[in-house]
């Protein structure tokens, strides 16, 4: 009986604390950039990475398009 009560109390505390945490959480906002690159792609992509951009997709089927994202500030 004591174990069952302890499990119920622990579960209640986890749900309450978890609920407070979830209420304060907001989804991450992103900004996006699409670029067509010629020339030295590596140097430019490295500079963009230093600015917080993350390469999401590189489509080289027709032209060299690069899709990037970074957290919105």
Short description:
The chain is of the alpha+beta class. The chain is built from 2 helices and 3 strands; from the N terminus they run H-E-H-E-E.
Please give a handful of descriptors for the protein shown:
45% helix; 73 residues; alpha+beta
- Tell me the radius of gyration: 23 Å
Number of helices: 2
Number of domains: 1
Assign the structural class, choosing from mainly alpha, mainly beta, alpha/beta, alpha+beta, or little secondary structure: alpha+beta
Reading the helices and strands in chain order gives: HEHEE
Instruction: Characterize the overall form.
Output: elongated
Helix content: 40-55%
Low-confidence stretches: none
Strand content: 25-35%
Query: How many β-strand stretches?
Result: 3
Identify the strand order in the major beta sheet: 1-3-2
- What separation lies between the terminal Cα atoms? 52 Å
Q: Main β-sheet, in a few words?
A: 3 strands, antiparallel
Whole-number mean pLDDT: 77
């Amino acid at each position: 009986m004591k174990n069952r009560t302890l499990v119920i109390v622990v579960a209640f505390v986890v749900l309450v604390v978890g609920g407070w945490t979830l209420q304060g959480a907001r989804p991450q906002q992103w900004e996006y950039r699409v670029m067509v690159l010629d020339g030295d792609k590596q140097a430019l992509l490295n500079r963009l990475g230093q600015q917080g951009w993350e390469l999401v997709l590189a489509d080289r089927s027709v032209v060299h398009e690069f899709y990037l994202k970074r957290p919105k500030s």
